[in-house]
């Protein structure tokens, strides 16, 4: 059969499965003898990338997604009709050579770059740093970088916090010095890697590769890419996988409503979901994979968008940073004025502080954000006309924001997490990508990798 005919046939069969097959993929379609039937768990970037690749290659693919939406940890909120805002991933990190740049260009997505250097930093007293303050900050950054570099060459591994505090004689630091130190740890490390300095491995916290070039936001949000990837796929929403049985010739996945069977399964569940044992594997996962699930860390980065009637902060800056009086609290803000032309500020909280804040009510979180802004901008601060807040740790289908390399973990654990089970059950998702864990492009690439691996195994 010519490839084009095969593709056409596959599309017809897929359309039929959406309309009439009910939910059981066990009724394999007519070309099952040529291409295995595939189930993919999770419709985030990893799952969608894998599903797209396999569908294009003529496989019969169904995606089971627990939520009532696709995108997973990329989620563009439409609450403000004129301002789509991303509650999960916002940026393409490093445009040069990034596969998401290529994808965005292929669909002419509107991108706008932001510049982390285009920032105003406010000091401990709430004033913009003067030259002396800037050099003080530089010194702290260099000091922390230096001791961490030294710590990476020393055994045994210990936490970033342990390494830094030991080298800088933490117990002798004055309260002001501690404020500077914790600002550097929060803004340059915890906000990027989402783990607490106490949990992050000195040896491995910054392992991996980053792309060069600017960071860019999607003007219409990450949904631009998500919807493009999802077009033409068979995705079943509201189907939470509870068990994956992979002993027999087929793999059977149970959800509260249905039982699905297929020749192969690609699992793209977030590390947090795997850690919480929300899905049972029968037989149980091999020891190396269980060790990886336990050993790698799942971090927290939360967002709070505040929409104001007008701009009261410097209009041209992308970033506003503050040396916070309280460790970890509201250190980093992004202004959406340059990118979207709207009076919206996005505040971030990560790691232990970000996680603890989830227990507060929306009102308490907004009040706490406004207190910080008032410290920086005084009486000019206006009451917000709207807000949107995330709680990724409490989210039952994420259980955190993204993975990090915890003390006691090694990069090998990511390969162990990615390892397939007998050529039948494959694993993708940001946490499986050794080079680009914690990113949208890492998730996307992991989906392509798992799809390729699956195709080669058949
Ligand atoms: C606040 C925040 C900001 C971020 N910022 C950036 C950024 O700016 N740039 C960047 O590159 N990355 C960023 N990231 C990271 C990026 O969003 C993730 O790495 C990426 O989206 C993960 O994709 P994934 O497919 O691996 O997982 P997910 O997107 O989580 O997909 C997994 C899917 O599985 C589903 N699922 C869970 N349990 C079940 C079940 N039992 N059965 C069926 N389905 C299930 C989930 O609902 C989800 O849809 C950010 C993340 C967060 C949370």
Automatic annotation (TrEMBL):
Domain of life: Bacteria
The keyword Oxidoreductase is assigned to this record: yes
SUPFAM superfamilies named among the record's database cross-references: FAD-linked reductases, C-terminal domain, FAD/NAD(P)-binding domain
A Pfam family matched in the record: Amino_oxidase
Record Gene3D superfamilies: 3.90.660.10, FAD/NAD(P)-binding domain
Domain called Amine oxidase: residue spans: 45-454
Listed transmembrane segments: none
Residues in the signal sequence: none
Needed cofactors: FAD
Keywords from the UniProt entry: Oxidoreductase
This protein's record includes keyword NAD: no
Name this polypeptide is given: FAD-dependent oxidoreductase
Lineage: Bacteria, Bacillati, Cyanobacteriota, Cyanophyceae, Thermostichales
């Amino acid at each position: 059969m010519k490839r084009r005919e095969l593709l056409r046939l596959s599309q017809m069969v897929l359309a039929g499965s959406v309309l009439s097959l009910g939910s059981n993929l066990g009724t394999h379609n007519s070309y099952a003898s040529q291409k295995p039937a595939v189930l993919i768990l999770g419709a985030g970037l990893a799952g969608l990338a894998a599903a797209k690749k396999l569908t294009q290659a003529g496989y019969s693919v169904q995606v089971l997604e627990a939520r009532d939406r696709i995108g997973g940890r990329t989620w563009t909120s439409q609450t403000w009709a004129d301002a789509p805002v991303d509650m999960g991933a916002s940026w393409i990190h490093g445009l040069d050579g990034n596969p998401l740049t290529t994808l965005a260009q292929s669909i002419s997505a509107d991108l706008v770059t932001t510049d982390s250097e285009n920032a105003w930093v406010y000091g401990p007293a709430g004033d913009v740093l003067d030259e002396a303050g800037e050099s003080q900050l530089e010194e702290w950054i260099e000091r922390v970088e230096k001791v961490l570099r030294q710590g990476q060459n020393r055994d045994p591994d210990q936490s970033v916090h342990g390494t830094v505090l030991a080298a800088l004689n933490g117990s002798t630091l004055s309260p002001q010095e501690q404020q500077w130190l914790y600002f550097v740890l929060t803004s340059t490390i915890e906000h990027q890697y989402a783990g607490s300095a106490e949990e992050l491995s000195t040896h491995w916290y910054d392992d991996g590769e980053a792309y060069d070039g600017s960071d860019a936001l999607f003007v219409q949000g990450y949904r631009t890419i998500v919807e493009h990837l999802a077009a033409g796929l068979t995705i079943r929403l509201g189907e939470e996988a509870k068990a994956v049985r992979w002993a027999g010739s087929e793999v059977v996945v149970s959800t509260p409503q249905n039982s699905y069977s297929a020749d192969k399964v690609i699992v793209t569940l977030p590390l947090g979901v795997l850690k919480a044992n929300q899905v049972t594997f029968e037989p149980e996962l091999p020891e190396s994979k269980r060790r990886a699930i336990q050993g790698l860390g799942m971090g927290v980065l939360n967002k709070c968008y505040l929409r104001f009637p007008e701009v009261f902060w410097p209009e041209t800056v992308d970033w506003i940073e503050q040396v916070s009086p309280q460790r970890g609290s509201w250190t980093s803000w992004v202004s959406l004025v340059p990118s979207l032309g709207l009076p919206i500020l996005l505040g971030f909280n990560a790691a232990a502080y970000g996680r603890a804040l989830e227990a507060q009510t929306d009102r308490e979180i907004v009040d706490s954000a406004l207190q910080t802004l008032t410290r920086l901008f005084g009486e000019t601060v206006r009451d917000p006309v709207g807000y949107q807040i995330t709680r990724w740790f409490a989210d039952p289908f994420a259980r955190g924001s993204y993975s990090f390399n915890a003390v006691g973990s090694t990069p090998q654990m990511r390969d162990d997490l990615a390892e397939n089970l007998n050529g039948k059950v494959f694993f993708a998702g940001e946490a499986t990508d050794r080079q680009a864990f914690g990113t949208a492009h890492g998730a996307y690439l992991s989906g392509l990798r798992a799809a390729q691996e699956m195709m080669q195994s058949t």
